[in-house]
Amino acid sequence: MSKLHFTTKHANAATVQHNWYVVDGTNQTVGRMCARIAAVLRGKNKAYYTPHVDCGDFVVVINADKVKFTGNKIEEKLYVHFSGYPGGKKEETAKNLLARRPEAVVEKAVKGMLPKNRLGRKIYKKLFVYAGAEHPHAAQQPKELKF
């Protein structure tokens, strides 16, 4: 008798197809929206997802200035940055960062949900965030991604 051998098909750079999606951030909760975006960037929405291969899609986020936080996070959540010098610790509330650089709120949230390695840095480059409703990626014909 012969045994049947099945091998798992792994995705690779030649077999992966990268699609473009656009996400509207209007009235979306930051963490929930970014968790879904991180999954699409990694390719977890595809049947041939392979953890060690970049099989994710490109994501364009528009209206990042209209995202919302739940509870008191808008007042209490702190974004911390350290310059590396003594006394160089800077803290900023979510409200201030959202007013000053709304793209940074979404970018930081998604980046924290990606792997902390070479692949994660490569995947992060496929995220494009814009504060307003306009984006320069119309030539790629992105499909709307609904949550």
Which features characterize this protein?
Ribosomal Protein L13p, Chain: A; 6 strands; alpha/beta; globular; 4-stranded parallel β-sheet; single chain
- The tally of strands reads 6
Q: Give a quick account of the main beta sheet: strands, pairing sense, barrel closure.
A: 4 strands, parallel
Q: What is the topology, as strand order, of the major beta sheet?
A: 5-2-1-6
CATH class of the domain at 20-69 and 100-144, anyone? Alpha Beta
The Rg value, from CA coordinates, equals: 18 Å
Mean pLDDT across all amino acids: 95
Distance between the termini: 50 Å
Succession of helices and strands: EHEHEEHHHEE
Strand content: 15-25%
CATH superfamily of the domain at 20-69 and 100-144: Ribosomal protein L13
Name the overall outline: globular
Share of helical residues? 25-40%
Helix-strand makeup class: alpha/beta
- Tally of helical runs: 5
Overview of this protein structure:
Helices cover 29% and strands 17% of the residues. The chain has 147 residues and is of the alpha/beta class. It has a domain of 95 residues: Ribosomal protein L13 (Ribosomal Protein L13p, Chain: A), CATH 3.90.1180. It has a 4-stranded parallel beta sheet with strand order 5-2-1-6, covered by helices on one side. A two-stranded antiparallel sheet has the order 3-4. Helix 1 links the parallel strand 1 and strand 2. The N and C termini lie far apart (50 Å). The mean pLDDT is 95.
